[in-house]
Each structure stands twice: as structure tokens, then as C-alpha cells.
Amino acid sequence: MDKSINELLSALTLAEKASLCAGLNMWMTKGIERLNIPPVHMYDGTNGIRKTNSDEEMGITTENVPATCYPTGSAIGSSWNTELLHEVGVALGRESKTMDVELLLGPGVNMKSTPLGGRNFEYYSEDPYLTGELGAAFINGIQSEGVGASVKHFAGNNQEFEKMVTSSEIDERTLREIYLSAFERIIKKSDPWTVMCSYNLLNGTYTSENEHLLNDILREEWGYEGVVLSDWTAVNDRIRGLKAGLDLEMPGPANYNAKAIIEAVQNGSLSEEQLDRSVGRILKLVERVTGKKDMDSSPDSDYHALARKAAAESIVLLKNENAILPLGQESISSIAVIGRFAKKPRIQGAGSAKVTPTNVDIPWDEIKNLAGDATTINYAEGYPEDDSINDEIIKESVSLAMNSDVAVLFVGQPEYAESEMHDLQGIDLPEHQVKLILAVAAVQPKCIVVTSSGSALAMRPWVQHVPGVIHSWLSGQGMGKVIADVLFGQTNPSGKLSETFPVKLSDNPSHMRIRGENGKLYYREGLFVGYRYYDRKELAPQFPFGHGLSYTSFSYTDLEVSQTHTGVTVSFQLKNTGKRKGKKLFNCMFTMKSAHGPVQRKN
Ligand code: BGC
Fold first, then answer.
1. Predicted confidence band of residue 407 (pLDDT cuts 50, 70, 90)
2. What residues are annotated to the active site?
3. pLDDT tens across 262-287, in order?
4. In angstroms, what is the span from residue 351 Cα to ligand 1's centroid?
5. 73 alpha carbon to ligand 1 midpoint, in Å?
6. What are phi and psi of 118, to 5 degrees?
7. Three-state SS across 433-494?
8. Pick among 2.60.120.1060, 3.40.50.720, 3.40.50.1700, 3.30.530.20: CATH of 304-501+531-537
9. What's the pLDDT tens digit per position in 305-327?
């Protein structure tokens, strides 16, 4: 733009200003040619770029311009690694530039307060601190490349059921300590160019016109000066929205609302200053986007390699009884690979975050590559696509497992169960898969289960009968190779659960409020979200928040805890006592010191 924002505000007509407050179409803001104001191109981007084939395409398109598919939020959240999130953010920023994308609609940082949330796979964790640190690192990475980010969905959007008409009823303390805290950290540490409001109401008012949320907290208290945009069609009353600080309505055009804005200014119910504030912020966004456009776009980066690296830090080894893993410690002449996900892995969730990947590693192919010619690998599909009970398929799997040295089962939540727009019905595996695991484990003691899902799974009916469990989450296009690497010990797993896996759904504190009543969803568990509840209740989960095994072992000595005026300092000597290299994770999240200098790492 060749004029300053103030000059542009004086040059724009009222009608032009009103039109700038909504998109031109699904994915662009409106430009004003006569004043050289270009449009901004934005697309979804939580774990990869979802750029539609046309800017007019409505709804959730499934075939888009191919782009790298990284691990989804809950997967990469289990890396606990801010450096990794930054690196993925940088890569996304670079890839965006090669695709003419100027603003990425992500990350999603809502709290996973119920394991049934249909979009849980997009979100990092049940913990606000972890979420805030990871989200800020990711945004700093994207924006360092001159591409904007949009942190979403602000706020109190923790389930899909009737979200457009449901009010999240959250008391002020819980709101601030649990549901806003990650947003606050992100705003302060990474200054996202935009914030996307959510669909729901918060304590009785739509977030798209919520004065307390957008003006008092976001702008006044946290000092946010960027653009607040609506989730797609989340605007209720446009004038109330503008007054509360909702700058940009998406998608557009919103001719009816543009007319309403003009009338409101003319009849005095909206001041022109209020309108100018929003238009000024939108112009600032245009300035930010265009100002960085000539930055190098490095089209030749190996994004697939980064997708594999990210998957390697996401996958969590949940159980490894008698060191059954990695395979290959004893010679193996045959492996039974069972389950459709071995050939058709679930690498991501469904909905607006779904990316068309550039390349997908298939676990079956990668296992065959690593096992080598001396090992026979056989496959059985394990369960039908619709998960209906089919005893013949189970029998075939059992006989294969019986006649092999080891069985590796690929199971998980089916895609139809876990998606934007609807919540999960439960957190157990489909009945057929449970029957399959029990039947195979009964004949083959060397039974490894690889699970896939974007949210916590209940495993009690079967987990005690198998020695090895790897949770692969939905870890993006590099996941298949990494699963094989973990199975054969080429990668030492280092992921740590970013959420609690309860024994059963009803152990979760949100269980009594699922779905809400008469358009109100009371967050009755208050502060006791996730591990806070299990700790307080002294209720053992199946696998706690932070759980994740390694192929090496560590010892901790000289533990000291001291209180300082800013908090508590914990120091200890950490030693890798095993034979394999371990993963240095902690100093990415926390700064650690000990009486003897920095914590020592011996790999
Ligand atoms: C989702 C947003 C997304 C937008 C655009 C909405 O339905 O809630 O997360 O960015 O669509 O696809």
C-alpha cells in the first residue's frame, strides 16, 4: 500500500469502509483497487495448508491443493517441544508463500476438557500452559516467514454438539485459568496477526459480539491490537459485533451487513470512530501481509522429512512389558500385520483441518522395508470398514497371528467417529476391534497394538492382555515410516501424552455435563479439568498426562525443590542409564538449573 493507514481512512468512503469489514468470498478479504488496497488470501492451516481449488468453493472440501500434512494438534502436542513447533511453523510459513497463502487459519488452541470433543485432534492438550507455549512457538514460526496466523476458536468452544446455539457457561475464575489462559500466553508471546472468534455463546452472549471477551479482556487487559475475525458464518448481530471489537466477518460477501453498517453510522447507533478502528486494524493486516511479501520462499525444502521428524516426536510408547519392543532383539522369521489402518493409515482428522497430503508413508510398506527379506510379513484386514461384526475376518486374523512369531495390530477410532461438526459417541474402540485384539492376544502372546485417534482412548477391556501398545495419534503423512521405525527401534519413542487417558469415559470430570441442557453447557467441573481432577480425586487413569516410555532408562538424583518469589525451582541430576540415546525434551519447555550448574544430559 502506498498510503498510510490514516490517509486511507480519510480517503475511503463509508460504503467502502463497510465493505472492507467482510470477506470478498470464502477465502479473501476485499481489496479496493482505486486506493491500491490489495486483498488478503487466507486458508485453513492447523496441521497443514488446506487451500481449496477455488476461492468460491463452499463447505468443507475434501480434495484441495496438495500440501504437507504434519501431525495434528494432539499428536504434536505430545512432543512437548516448542523448538519443533517453531520449526513446523516456519515450514508452514514457507510452504504458504509458495502457494500464495498470506494468512493461515490456525492453530486451534481450545482446551480438551472432554475426550468426546469432535475437534480434539486439532487441539494440543488439556493443559493451558503446555498449549500456550506450543501455540506461541508455532505462531512465531509461521509469522517469522511473513505469513499471518489466526489463533482459534476464541473462546469456550470445547465440543461440536449444537455449538452454534449453545452457551458455554463458565465461571470467571475457570474461564481465565483454564479456557483463556493459553490464548493469553499466545497473545503475549507471539502477537498473532489475527484471532478467530468461536461459534458458541459464552455466558449468554455470542463470542462474536461479546464485549467482555473481545473488548475488556482481549483488547484492554491483554493489549491485543490485531484483527479479530469471525469463524465462518459465526456473526450474529453485526453492529453489536463491531462495537465489541469483531473487525472482519468471514466469509463474504456480506452485503446485507454492509448495508446495516452504513445505516448504523448514518443513524448514529454506531460511531464512525468505532468503524474506523476495525477498518484500521484490517488495513494494518493488509500492510503486514504485503510488507513481507518479497521474503524468500525457499520452495525446495524437504517438508516430508520434517513431517516424519515431527511424527517421530509425537508418537507415544504407552506400554512395553518385558521389553517386547523394539522388535528384532531376537530373530523373527514372520510377522502378522493385522488391521486396515496398516494399509490405509489415519494420518489426520476430518473437517476444515483436513489437508490433501503430498505423500503418505504406509506402515505396511515401511514394515516390509525394515524387516528385510529374511522375515515373512503377512497381512489380514482385521475389521471391515464399517466396523460391523464379522467373525470370519477375526478367524482369518487369529490364524495368521498363530502362525507368526509376532502380531502387530493396527486399530483406532474410525474417521466417521471423529470429525468437525459432531462429537465422538465414546472413547472405546469399536466392538469389532476389541474382539479382534482379545482373540489375537489369546493365541499370540507377542502382540503389539498400534492405536490411532486424536483424542484419549479407553483401553481397559484389552490393554491388560497385550504386552506392547504404541499410540500413534493422527501423526500426519510421515507417520507410517515412523511407526515402522519405532517398532524396529530405529527411532526411540519420546512422545508424552498431552492429555489423560482415563480407564473409562465416565471417569472424566466432564462426563456429567456432556451436550448441555436447553442450549446451555455448564462447565460444572470448574478448574478440575484433565489431570487436575484425577489428582484431586485420587483416581488412577489408564495412562496419566505426561506418560510416555522410552527404549532407554533414566535416573534422577539430587532432587531439590526450593521456593523463589516467582515460583518453585526444581533441580536434579538426570542421567541416561540405558544403552540408547534418549530425547532431550525438558529444556525446550522449562529452564532447568541445579546446584551443580545446568542439568547434565548423558546420552
Ligand atoms: C471452522 C474454522 C475454519 C473455518 C474455515 C469453520 O467451520 O470452525 O476452524 O477455519 O471453518 O474453514
1. very high
2. 231
3. 999 999 999 999 999 999 999 999 99
4. 8
5. 15
6. -65, -25
7. HHHHHHHHHHHCCCEEEEEECCCCCECHHHHCCCCEEEECCCCCCCHHHHHHHHHHCCCCCC
8. 3.40.50.1700
9. 999 999 999 999 999 999 999 99
The DSSP bridge partners found for residue 571 are 560
Peptide bond into 107 cis (omega under 30): yes
Residue 594's pLDDT band, with cuts at 50, 70 and 90, is very low
Distance 151 CA to ligand 1 centre (A): 12
Q: Is there an atom of ligand 1 within 6 Å of 485 CB?
A: no
Domain with CATH 3.40.50.1700 in the chain: 304-501+531-537
| CB of 105 shorter than 6 A to ligand 1 | yes
Q: What is the pLDDT of residue 595?
A: 34
User: C-alpha cell of 366?
Assistant: 515401511
- Kindly tell me if the per-residue pLDDT of 597 is higher than 90: no
Q: Does residue 44 line the site of ligand 1, with CB under 6 A? A: yes
- 153 CA closest ligand 1 atom index: 9
Residue 152 near residue 192, CB atoms below 8 Å = no
Percent helix, strand and coil across the chain, each to the nearest 5: 35, 20, 45
End-to-end Cα distance, the chain: 53
Q: What is the pLDDT of residues 170-179, one digit of tens each?
A: 999 999 999 9
CA of 352 to the centre of ligand 1 (A): 6
Is the Cβ atom of 113 under 6 angstroms away from ligand 1?
Answer: no
Decide whether any atom of ligand 1 lies within 6 Å of the 126 Cβ.
Answer: no
CB 325 within 8 A of CB 396: no
Q: How large is the greatest C-alpha to C-alpha distance in the chain, in angstroms?
A: 83
The C-alpha cell that represents 551 in the structure block: 527404549
Nearest CA, atom 4, ligand 1: 232
> Which of these, 97, 70, 63, lies nearest to 306 by C-alpha position?
70
Average the pLDDT over each of 112-121, 171-180, 185-194, 582-591 and give the range with the smallest value.
Answer: 582-591
CB of 397 within 6 A of ligand 1: the answer is no
pTM: 0.95
